[in-house]
Each structure stands twice: as structure tokens, then as C-alpha cells.
Amino acid sequence: MKIRIVLASVAIAGTCSVTAIAISGMLSKEPVPLAIAKATLWTPDPLSAPRLADSVVSLPTAIQIDVARSIRPTPLVQPAFTETALPEIEPPLITWSREIAAGETLDALLANAGIAAPVRAEIALALGAEYDLRRLRPGHEITVISKVDGNPSRVQLSVDDGVRIETVFGQELVTRVLEPDPEMVTFAGEAVIESSVFAALDKAGIPARFAVDMAQMLGGTVDFRRELSGGETMRLLWREARDGNERIGQPELAFAALNLGETVYEIVWPDDGSGKATIYVDGEVLRVFAQPVEGARLSSVFGRRTHPVYGNVRMHTGVDFAAARGTPVNATAPGRVSFIGRRGGYGRVVEIAHGSDTLTRYAHLSEVPDTLEQGQRVMAGDMIGRVGATGTATGPNLHYEVLLNGRPTDPLSDDRLAEAAEREADDTVAIKRLTEARSLLAERLASDFAQTTTERL
């Protein structure tokens, strides 16, 4: 009985609640706007049935599906493995290099490099096939490139003018001559004399060996000991053969000018390799002179000295020019060959008469041209022999003498040869050469000055 009463009460309460909520919603609801009411009545137009194309479209053959083909599993791609050989590592090489000193032989140097006697003999034969090993002299360089086991791989002999003779070891020895392809470069410089010509050139960064050329050319005209008081200016133009930054051989003078007080001495050397130079004083031709050995070093002057072989003090009757064996020797002035042969300690000699009272003698020659004969006329700059060490000599050099009425005189101060040589001078051509040399010197000096100024900035 009580349960029924409870259930009835709950039902009555729920009905009252629903009725109250409905009445509340109806009282609070606002009227819907007309536009929204119309929008709710819109429906889309019915779709028309699709129209089939009149022609039959077939798929391209390439993309047609073969329903009959059975589907098979794709095989797995097997990676390909290739065996790649590792690069071979070259064993390290050992380089040994030495300059040849006075009195040293090729065999002694190779022994010093640790090369066995049989291999040294092979190397000497191979190098000797391309170069006369008797011409080796101090300053030449031998380079040995060896493997770690001590066996040589390559041997290189560097001689004059950048020439290299190379022997390569393989199944057999291969020897070749490597010659540079130099470029001739022209340089210019200016120096102020304070104590000596040599010191002035060295201080200015100009090859100091040009002091010898200046002494040869002007020795009979300028007394360098008395007339140089300091402050004199020298300007020089020279040529160098260059292989990159390396100089090949010795530099060659092209032009030199010495301002001595109010007098200007100028020298022009030709570029034909003859070494025959023209000397000018205040723009006029003084004489023509040819150096006996182009680019040589003055190793001994005229006068009393201690003899290099006998050790006692004797009169040295000429001047010596140290140069490599085989270097050409030129006549210093026109004349006639009066003697070819040997004269005791002079060794092989050529003598040239310049008129009735003057004679030049060229001694210690290694050879004389077969075409040169006694009585033959020669001109300044003509080759009459080659430097050697015949007779009493400690090494390759030219002993050069000037004899006046049979008596030796200083070749660097005697002016007798000028009388014979100046007859060769063609003033018109010579003046043209001087003008060209002056212009080139001024151009090079201006260029070097501009470059130096730019580097400083």
C-alpha cells in the first residue's frame, strides 16, 4: 500500500515538471523572421540523368588492364657486391743532394750517398753517355733519389745553364737531358759609388760581377783608383735568362753609363753573343772592344803575386779569367793570327798580332777551331778557342796577355788595342745603338720606380 502511494507521488511530480518546462519554453520563444522561414523551405533542383557519349572511348593499349594476367609476387632485388681493390701506397722516397766541391769526383759523391760500387759504375756510364764527366766542376750538383731499401730510383746531375742530366732506374737504365726553356728578362739599376765599383753594385742589388766588365771596358780610359772620389753615379741595363723565378746562367750587361764629373762614359753591348762592346765618351764613339771570355770571373790581375803552383813570388804577365771548361774565347780586337800551338807552361796558345808592335796571347786553351789557321785575319769577337787547363794551371781559365814590342803590359789599362778596334766602328750605327740603349734604360728605370712606389703604398 505504501509503495503504491510513493510511486503515484513520483509520477505526479514528473508530470508537473514536464508541464512547467513546456509552458516556460512556449512563453520565452520569440517569433522566427520571415526571411529565415523562407530559407528553410528551399530545396535543390533534381539532378538530370547523365548523358552517355555517342562514340566508344577505348583505353590506350599501354594502360589496358589484363584481368586474365595472374598477379605474381615481385622478386626481391639482390644487391651486387663488387670487390674494389684499395689503391697502392707508394713507398716514401729519400732525397740526397750535394754540390760538387773542388777536387771531388762523381764516384766519391755517389759513394757518399751510400750507393754500392757496381751501381755507381752503371750511373757513371749512363750519365757519361750524355755529358762529358771531365767537364764537372765546383758548383755542379748531384741529386740521388732512393727508395727506403737504399736502392736508387733516380739520379740527376745539374750542370751549367740549368741543364740537367737524369738517369731513371727501371727494368733498364734510361738517361735523358732536361733543358730549360728560359725567357730573357731585362733589368735596370742605379748605384752610387762610395768606396768601390764592386761595393756600389753589391749595395744596390746589381750583380757585382759587372765590376769586372766595367774594369775591362774602361781600364785604359778611366783610372778607377784616382778618379773616383765618391758620389759618382752608375746606371746599368742587363739581361737574364729566367726559368720562372730561377736565373739560368750568368747575367749579361747590355748598357752601362758612368757619370764622372762632367764626363759621361757609356758602353753598349750587343745582344748577338759576340761580347763586342762599343765605348762612348759624351755621346761620341771612343772605341770598340771585345771581351776575351763572355761572363767570366776575373780571378787574377796583372802584377807580382804568389804563384798558385810553385808557391814563390813571381810576376804575373797577364790577367786570368776563371770560366767553365769549353767556354768560347774571343779575339779582343781585329788582327792576324801569328801563332797556334803550345808554349811550355802556357799550354795550348793562340797569338794575334794587331799591327807591328801589339800582340795578344790566349793561353791554357782546351782546343782551337779546326778552321783557324796561322796568318788568318780575325775580327773583334771572333771565336779563336775554348777555355781549358793545359800547361801549368790549377783549373780551367783563360790567361790573357797584351804584349807591346814583346813586353807584357796590363791588359786592363793599356789603350793600344783601341787604335786597332776603333777602325771597326760605324759611327752612324753605333750612335743609333746608343740612343736605343738610353731609351730602354730610362723606360726600365721608370717602370721599376713606379712598381717600387706602388709596393710601398
Give your account of this protein's structure.
The chain is of the alpha+beta class and 457 residues long. It has three domains: 94-178, Nuclear Transport Factor 2, Chain: A, CATH 3.10.450; 181-269 and 426-457, Nuclear Transport Factor 2, Chain: A (Roll); 296-424, Glucose Permease (Domain IIA) (Distorted Sandwich). Helices cover 24% and strands 31% of the residues. The protein contains nine helices and 23 strands. The chain has helices at residues 2-28, 34-39, 106-112, 117-128, 197-203, 210-218, 224-227, 416-421, 427-456; strands at residues 94-99, 141-146, 152-158, 164-168, 174-178, 183-192, 233-243, 246-260, 263-268, 276-281, 284-290, 297-300, 303-306, 313-316, 319-322, 328-330, 335-342, 348-354, 358-365, 377-378, 383-386, 397-404, 407-409. The strands form five sheets. Strands 12, 15, 17, 18, 19, 20, 22 and 23 form an eight-stranded antiparallel beta sheet that branches. Strand 2 and strand 3 form a beta hairpin. Helix 3 crosses helix 4 (117-128). The termini are far apart. It comes from Pseudosulfitobacter pseudonitzschiae. This is Peptidase M23. Its cofactor is Zn(2+).
Helix-strand blueprint:
Elements: H1 2-28, H2 34-39, E1 94-99, H3 106-112, H4 117-128, E2 141-146, E3 152-158, E4 164-168, E5 174-178, E6 183-192, H5 197-203, H6 210-218, H7 224-227, E7 233-243, E8 246-260, E9 263-268, E10 276-281, E11 284-290, E12 297-300, E13 303-306, E14 313-316, E15 319-322, E16 328-330, E17 335-342, E18 348-354, E19 358-365, E20 377-378, E21 383-386, E22 397-404, E23 407-409, H8 416-421, H9 427-456
Antiparallel strand pairs: 1-2, 2-3, 3-4, 4-5, 6-7, 7-8, 8-9, 9-10, 10-11, 12-15, 13-14, 15-22, 16-21, 17-18, 17-20, 18-19, 19-22, 22-23
Helix pairs in contact: 3-4
Pfam families: Peptidase_M23
Keywords: Hydrolase, Metal-binding, Metalloprotease, Protease, Zinc
Protein name: Peptidase M23
